[in-house]
Write a structure and sequence with these properties.
The structure is a homotrimer of 668-residue chains. Chain A is of the alpha/beta class. Chain A contains 19 helices and 25 strands. Chain A is globular and about 80 Å long.
Chain lengths: 668, 668, 668
């Protein structure tokens, strides 16, 4: 297990570098990420390169025994490039062209920008591709950050048309796939199509979903050009990218495919504020984090879900490329971390499967956009609270190594797909219906119970799980159906939820009875589906303990086929269309269809019943606010509250102090 | 009485058409509306027409005995037209040009678009103007829908200047009419004037009102070009347009003038959500519909007010051109209708004066913008809840015929004017002062009491009413004053409310004591007027039962003239300026002036007193949630709640089940 | 003491002028402001002037003994100018060009507009610069009103580059000053820089602060061109400008420098609504004004703070150039003033240091944007409530003269700086941290206690104050530090608050321990600083009565240096870093540093302790809702409530009626 830090040598006088490096070593730093925003320092004028400062910086770091991760600087083009070639600039949906003065203002489909990106990456790789102190590369920085995933510039108009032509071959096929006959939208040629910009106030959802896919693939292609150069010139270095947890607008799986491993940037006090409204119950009032947690620790359920998503990208350990180590500057309240909280976050990340923790940032910047963001050092160069925690963690290095040498594994997977996320985002039908939220109901129930769960794609290896939960398998493409069918036949329990099987791959509604292509697999037919306004409920009864009660928010009446078993019914509806939860056996496994959007309590009850059947047991019985994770033989208990708690592990009573961590060797 | 349905044969394989037609016949459908969005199917390339599919569709329908209403497809220009002539595209107030991919993105003042519109309408009319299965035409679709009533493109800059030149003749007259001397705005020529776009952050209200009028007239002129062609080539067909109920941005009366009858598109679960904030008390918290009603029926008061407005457009029976028959897709919650609710809505429409109910739509679309909108059939072609209700209503066809053979009539009219609506919208002075809301106070009181009321223009025939309510006769033009004066002299009681007589036709303030040109008619002078913040009230006393209490929201001190009688006074103000409600006799009638904005309870009390005087009696005594309407001898009771209710009609106790309808033959 | 009125003779027939003038004289009007929006009347076409009407108007006024203040009409360019030279039009941050039809749509950096401005001012000055009835000039009108302070047009792109070149001399210096190395923003030349427009979604705070300064200086330079002409051609006339109280976007001190005195436009029912959210506690729910006050008087604390700011601009008496005299038209609720309220406001202004009260406006306009704004006369020419109050005040003219002949003086000053305001606005770090709000805590506490306080700049004369409060001396430039150091050495008590000393003049963070350059002066080092979310508190204890309790919202741990005394400590923190309030003696004075953002009660307690030490005593003991001011020997008591109150002054019990004023001769 290694510690790292994000460092900007170009921001400080060289005379300071040696002091910084010494302080890094004293705190046990092993790895330093540099360079990812320094294009204008590397190439201050067109074709005039200045590598000497970077050579010296790497040298100073390397001689102190630090390993260097280099970032390609393409998130921040120099001003001379923007002024000479304004066609590289991204354009918003409302036609406003972005400009120099921030980051990520480029268009990934600009042929000009692609050429300049390749040039700077090639130049860096030629210089450092075999450098002894460099161990790997981060491509660009936080693709899509700052709502930059989609561009509507002329480059993209052309590229989108070409992408559609490649996808659909003939315009007739596209018209069919989009239902373009509706409202006279039929096209005679691909060049008549534009991205769905703000001038179209009410948009065709098939067109928009394709534009989202096109945008996502644009970044994959853009990234691949950099990867190709690095694979060629830095063949012994790893390549990664720093993702943003539950970020929604790009396909993280597609981006991760060509990387050696995934990393993400974890900001526990910021991301919950950003994600809260997408995750908690749609009609709930969650103006603040769950109050059970201490005010400065963030919301561990949400952060762990982001860990789970990143871990699932490649189903292997990952890095935290930027770990919050104090306060941040971009949220609303930005509380400072107290002593111990940075350690708690570090253990939380490691417990969730991270093997390397890179803190962001070394020292608070004196200038520009991120002045109010903590570093391990303060503005004045003295050590801050994160540094103190890091020092304290040096005593635990052996324990970290023990833990990270073990695998993280789960018997349950939550299934997730970008098409489903976007299609539901485009047409929620009921305010607040969101795939992340629907996943969160189950994620939270399992996390609270202390049951490990992975958040994975249908394209991941599903064979390792006993139970699969697909809250909404919405866009029913053949690959997804085959994947879950295969897993069920091999013995898995699959739980399908409402609005599954609704859409075709081009975002049309199926013309078959619902759940469409999943109907046979689930052994059911959906007779009606309803959005339920607040306060409107259908009474449900079930033999499963705790599941009876009320269906709210969304309900579907199920008619079971043939031998499909009924596990819950709507009390006020007549047979045979009154099933609310069904189960069909298939091969060695079974498929359940849950006809309503469950509450936290209902999800907990249902999962408990299914887990019992599959012999899946929680890691520990957890008091509220204490979370648990397991890596192999190691059990990690994390207390996110301001109180002492006692956790029962087997026969032991483990006491855990406020915001403290306990690691227990406990064979499964 | 006839049933109809909106059908899109171009969306389905022809092989399905016969099945659809058979299902229509089985459900008692008589009329089918088609074609209104199919331009790109009719003219897939410029000047290349394809009528064969439409011939076949009409043929299939007609041979099954169905009558066809054809829509002109000008709400949805084909993409080749937008790409070849981008000058046809509407431009928003903030200069964003609208684009292909939705509907209503055209500019009604584009000479190019007008020419192309005439061409396609002429071509359609030449082919179908005498077709035996076609009975009439719908012009375009929902003028103004999707906030498209006003355009700021170069076509409109020119057209607005020309419109102003025609209206004011000389620029001096315009400067005078607009008070352009204010803030150095005086113009030397009409070509210096622009529409009041977003670049003018604080606008001259005379200019804006004229621009609203100009925009409204633009659509009238645009529509007239289509009407002229159809009158010529389809002389035996009716012509109509589908309006949008309480839609505000176009002058529905002006548009309706040249039509044979009016229709509107009734969406009971969607429009209340849209209108609620314009209708309930301005400081009230109405985050949901009135909770007395069942969750899936909408808010009948609001929908009935929209019926009343549409009925008043031509003071004759109307059609529902699109009647909701399940859930819709464009509101926030979109609940599904339960069995019986579609029947309830159908009877509600008929009770309000509709003679033809056309359901929207035949089958849920598999693609594009409206995928989540119910049809009578589901996506998979099976019958949905609306179809079941329609089938059930076949047993009532005779009763429907009885009811629709009777006239809808009212003794009370609410007076409404677009100039007043817009002028108050531009200068509410107090947050939330809105003419629709002010009308709604009275509308709701009467509807709740079970008293028929029409919502009519000052230009309608007022001679048929015993009582006229003009909550705010704001822009005091000669025509309006003459109309109400004449009605009063003939015997009507006229109730005038606050802010009446304030403005001149060009939206200046009168330089006469208020209520300006209405002062003599009402026999009063307004001494002061005040916007009252929440919680600020003036005590009022009146001999009229229930009227005493507090004046809130808005108050005016009235000084009665000569023999004007005082019916309420402000307790804390001195004579003679303390009148709060006055009454002046004139000819056979009388004119009241109410000096404050009444609550629901105050409006109810005042109306009861006035009705008693005029011998106007409610249809029935109604429990909350039960509404009543009368067509001639037929009394229709509608229960919008989830409970049984008993209604006393004469000596009879009529029991009415939840969401049920009772029709009673009850001579007046 | 004089009364005045804003009059628009060009809006009324000349036949009315004599009536108006007679009514003015009867009400005791001495001064009339005219002309400030009449450019199109003065120069109806390019280079064609019409002065005759204005000659006649001035003549009519002057012959009646009225003195005329002329406004230069540059807030409202005529349409011929905008159409001929669209480069004069301001452009918003989102690239939308402003247009004719409102006011203030010009760019102050347009060389074209500057030339035309000079021409019209020169022409006016040539005609009226020595006119016997003219006494002075108002430049333009409400610089920055309607969010117009900043322009992003091509003129400004060029001017901003030039301004930066003049400020920084070399681009290397600018890159250093902005920290442009961050995110590759370094510039090679000034011409590569653009204003921070909306296309840059996340901006460099040094760049933005410089742009705010540039914008502010643009108006100073624009104004100076008019002043130069007037000084030359109207050497015996005063020159002023009408400011907008707590308006934030321009540097009022810089604008006031070249003026003879300052004036402001006081709208007591409108400005509180506008400012409330910037002033009351950031997590407080203040949806309405402080309910202790009568509903029609506004919020006197806020208005008095605006008086204090305007008074401080030049540390001398000022005018109210526009005093509300009824209701206004531009807020949400716009209540009408009751009889007595206009008198109350007039006395409030005079009590705060105003010597001339000019009412806005003479008569309600019949047309255009401000129709719903009261005048002294109504639309119909009859006298309104303000006129009645003005008439009543004639009996008090001698008392007004007595009061205005006395100086307004205070022993306490609140220190304020535009750089600090803007820098904190750009990076509040915690939602709602705002300098005005931080000032308001102290202002309100003092105002409520009846203690006079000035709101002044660090550039003002500080020697007259015993106590200086700098809630946040944020951008620590040498001038500010020298000013407060000097004052302390001379004997003043200086109270510094959180976030002081944080920034350098170019908006970088200091690289020294906080409070940076103030560290020696205050004798402290800030060890940590924290934004505290709602509900998170640090316990504080202090020997100062009433100060113990909780630190919320923002806290800083203080380590006192050397002999710095500790006046409050954080209970739960260890020495020596647990100081919460410190005091260091310096010369004849002392410097306190308060480590948290105080509540109203805490500020009150702390101030009471400090005042006692300095021998500063309240004017009177005030019941809630009664405010007091002192001018020399005259004590003015103002009752802003609807109840009678008794005020103890010395040994006397003064009874004051609702919304009444008492003036008491009370030697200090």
């Amino acid at each position: 297990m290694k510690f790292g830090v994000c460092y900007y040598p170009e921001h400080w006088p060289e005379s300071r570098w040696l002091i910084d490096v010494q302080l890094m070593r004293e705190a046990g730093i092993d790895i330093v990420r540099i360079g990812e925003f320094a294009w204008s320092k590397m190439e201050p004028q067109y074709d005039v390169y200045d590598w000497e400062w970077l050579d010296r910086a790497i040298d100073v770091l390397g001689r102190a025994g630090l390993q260097v991760v280099l970032g390609t600087p393409t998130a921040t083009p120099p001003v001379w490039l923007s002024r000479a070639h304004p066609d590289i600039l991204r354009v918003d949906a409302d036609e406003l062209q972005r400009d120099h003065g921030t980051r990520r203002h480029y268009c990934p489909n600009s042929t000009t920008y692609r050429a300049y990106s390749r040039r700077i990456v090639r130049a860096m790789a030629e210089r450092y591709g075999t450098h002894p102190h460099v161990i790997g590369w981060q491509i660009d920085n936080e693709f899509g950050g700052g709502k930059t995933a989609r561009c509507y510039c002329p480059n993209c108009v052309t590229a989108f048309s070409a992408w559609l032509a490649a996808r659909y071959k003939s315009i007739e096929t596209l018209n069919e796939a989009w239902g373009a006959v509706f409202w006279s939208q039929s096209y005679a040629g691909f060049d008549e199509i534009r991205p769905p910009h703000a001038g179209v106030n009410y948009k065709n959802p098939s067109q928009v979903l394709d534009f989202y896919r096109f945008s996502a693939e644009s970044y994959v292609a853009y990234q691949q050009e950099q990867i190709d150069i690095l694979r060629d010139l830095a063949p012994n270095h790893f390549i990664t990218h720093n993702f943003m947890g539950l970020y929604r607008d790009l396909d993280q799986h597609a981006l991760a495919k060509a990387l050696d491993f995934a990393t993400w940037d974890a900001y526990p006090t910021g991301f919950p504020e950003r994600w809260r409204n997408f995750l908690y119950a749609p009609d709930a009032d969650f103006s603040r984090n769950d109050p059970v947690y201490a005010y400065d620790v963030g919301e561990p359920v949400m952060i762990n879900m982001a860990h789970a998503l990143t871990r699932g990208l490649k189903q292997q350990p990952f890095w935290i490329m930027e770990q919050q180590c104090g306060h941040i500057n971009w949220a609303g309240l930005n509380p400072q971390a107290r002593r111990g909280t940075v350690r708690l976050w570090t253990w939380q990340s490691v417990a969730a499967g991270a093997d390397v923790i890179v803190f962001f940032r070394w020292r608070s910047t004196l200038f520009a956009h991120e002045q109010y963001h903590s570093g391990l050092l303060r503005h004045d160069g003295s050590t801050d609270v994160g540094y103190a925690d890091l020092l304290a963690m040096q005593a635990e290095r052996r324990l970290f190594d023990v833990v990270t040498s073990e695998p993280h594994s789960a018997e349950i997977a939550l299934l997730f797909d970008w098409d489903d996320l976007w299609a539901l985002e485009l047409q929620p039908h009921r305010t607040g219906f969101d795939l992340m939220r629907h996943l969160f109901v189950y994620y939270r129930a399992l996390e609270r119970m202390g049951v490990p769960v992975d958040l994975v794609s249908y394209r991941n290896d599903l064979s390792r799980y006993k139970m699969l939960i697909a809250p909404t398998l919405h866009v029913a493409d053949a690959l997804k159906i085959a994947a879950v069918t295969d897993a069920v036949e091999q013995g898995a329990t699959l739980l399908l939820g409402v609005r599954s099987g609704f859409k075709t791959p081009s975002n049309l509604v199926t013309d078959q009875p619902l759940p469409g292509a999943l109907s046979d697999l689930a052994g059911v037919m959906i007779v009606t589906w309803e959005s339920l306004p607040p306060g409107v409920e259908w009474a449900v009864t079930s033999p499963i303990a705790g599941l009876s009660g009320a269906a709210s928010y969304w309900m579907e009446r199920i008619r079971p086929k043939n031998d499909t078993e009924i596990l819950a019914t709507y009390l006020d509806l007549p047979k045979p269309d009154n099933a609310a939860l069904t189960c069909r056996s298939l091969g060695a496994g079974s498929v359940l269809y849950l006809g309503w959007y469950p509450t936290h309590e209902q999800a907990t009850s249902l999962l408990q019943a299914l887990m019992q059947e599959k012999g899946i047991r929680p890691i520990a019985e957890l008091p509220e606010g204490v979370h648990a994770s397991r890596r192999g033989q190691q059990l990690i208990l994390l207390n996110f509250t301001d109180s002492h708690h006692t956790v029962k592990v087997g026969k032991d009573q483990i006491v855990i102090a406020p915001r403290d961590v306990r690691v227990i060797s406990a064979p499964v």
